[in-house]
Amino acid sequence: MPAVLVKSAADSSAISHDFLEVYGALKALLEEPAPSMPEVEAKFSNTDPLRIHRLVMRGVQKRFARTFSSAFQSLPREEVLRVIGVSERTLQRAQEDDVLDPNASDRLLRLATVTEQAIDVLGTQEAAEAWLAKPAIGLDRNRPIDLLETSEGTELVKTLLKRMDYEVYA
After folding, report:
1. Domain that holds residue 155
2. Which of 131, 91, 92, 136 is CA-nearest to residue 115?
3. What confidence tens digit (pLDDT) does each residue in 12-57 have?
4. 46 in a domain, yes or no?
5. CB neighbours of 91 closer than 8 A, spacing ≥ 6?
6. Residue pair 115/128 in contact by the 8 Å Cβ criterion
7. Is this prediction's pTM over 0.85?
8. How many other C-beta atoms lie within 10 A of the C-beta of residue 82?
């Protein structure tokens, strides 16, 4: 069973309502019945990897990808869709039950996980999105969002966030 973090009203204020809804929707995909939002937030970093694997192989619904890509406040939608690996047109044409292929589903979940981790480390969605969009010295001056297209790049970003959280920069 995936770990779930109960958020107080004060804790939830730093995370936008849109992101809480998105996490709630992902939680519903991972586990039925889904807990009600905003009292409970799915924590992907603590979710059973096998459950995430099954979701990736089953495919994330394209309508959810539309909602997810719209939840970002300052990152351009085109960049979010580039990281996920789908076009705006693909999402517009999607039928009700259409799903992303496993590669795009995996990339969407990686972006969700890293965004969640960045919010936890930096305190707000706004700060997390700004950090994702700017070159980082710890990533050889690459922008974190550009590295999220591969699993290796994602691991580099997650490692840097962990180091930032523990204030270990060397």
Report:
1. 4-165
2. 131
3. 344 455 555 665 666 555 554 333 333 334 566 677 788 888 889 9
4. yes
5. 62, 65, 66, 69, 81
6. yes
7. no
8. 16
The answer to whether residue 170 sits within a structural domain is no
Question: Does residue 161 lie within any of the structural domains?
Answer: yes
Select from 22, 36, 19, 18 the least CA-distant residue to 4: 36
Within 8 A by CB and 6+ apart from 168, the residues are none
Tell me the DSSP string of 11-58: HHTTS-HHHHHHHHHHHHHHSSSPPPTTTEEE-GGGS-HHHHHHHHHH
* 137's tokens: 């010295």
Peptide bond into 33 cis (omega under 30): yes
Per the structure, the count of domains in the chain is 1
In a domain, residue 34? The reply is yes
Give the tens place of pLDDT for each residue, 67-119: 889 999 999 999 999 999 999 999 999 888 899 999 999 999 999 999 999 99
Asked if residue 139 lies in contact with residue 163, where contact means CB atoms within 8 angstroms, the answer is no
